[in-house]
Amino acid sequence: MVIDISNLEFSWNPQASTVLSIDALQVSPGERLFIKGPSGSGKSTLLSLLSGVTTAGAGTLRVMGQSLEQLSSIQRDHFRANHIGYIFQMFNLIPYLSVIDNVVLPCHFSKQRRSRALANGNDLKAEARRLLTHLDMAQAELLNRPVTTLSVGQQQRVAAARALMGSPELLIADEPTSSLDADRRESFIKLLFDECKQTGSTLIFVSHDGSLENLFDRTIDLAEINRAGQVEVEV
User: Fold this and answer.
1) Which of 25, 118, 128, 205 has the smallest number of CB atoms closer than 10 Å to its CB?
2) pLDDT tens column, 131-175
3) Which CATH architecture has domain 31-55+72-225?
């Protein structure tokens, strides 16, 4: 399993109420999983745990066989850099870098992703251009522009290319289509699927928009599997 959760319990501090309680959740390699749920259902907390930003208070959470709670904070940072691509809801692009420099950024933090990227292309920028081509962003006049000059939809595709750079085994997408209209949402997701299929990445796609779920292999309603039933503040 790429993700294997068992008897997971999480609260923000020992005195606080439990905000996430999941008996079991497994995700297979290459699976495209859609996780939905209203604000307060635990989506942001689950993503923090899956990416190793936070760790569970009880139970186990394994990502690619590694129990994240057994790693130190620095080890989790390295694990995330090597194995997880993350498309943030607000993109988190570096505003003073160009499009192509934003895309190659993960390879400066992970030797593994750098090696995999170089295996796919002659150099890092060639691989970045390949990814941007698959996401309809390969126009020469765009590549060296600051990302702040792009439209919202273009910035989302740059964020997706950056997350896919170096073929991470796990791709997490947090509300990545929230600023797109219906046609652009579906087009963006299909482009994302194509690249994940080519790289063999597992996709965890989180959204409150249930109209997208039929595009995915499987859907989980987090409000139904989170036994804590606590309202959390989504960030």
Assistant:
1) 118
2) 998 888 878 888 999 999 999 888 988 999 999 999 999 999 998
3) 3-Layer(aba) Sandwich (3.40)
Q: What is the 3-state secondary structure (H, E, C) of the chain?
A: CCEEEEEEEECCCCCCCCCEEEEEEEECCCCEEEEECCCCCCHHHHHHHHCCCCCCCEEEEEECCEEHHHCCHHHHHHHHHHHEEEECCCCCCCCCCEHHHHHHHHHHCCHHHHHHHHHHCCCHHHHHHHHHHHCCCCCHHHHCCEHHHCCHHHHHHHHHHHHHCCCCCEEEEECCCCCCCHHHHHHHHHHHHHHHHHHCCEEEEEECCHHHHHHCCEEEEHHHHCCCCCCCCCC
Q: What is the pLDDT of residue 80?
A: 96
Q: What is the pTM of this model?
A: 0.90
Boundaries of every domain in the chain: 31-55+72-225
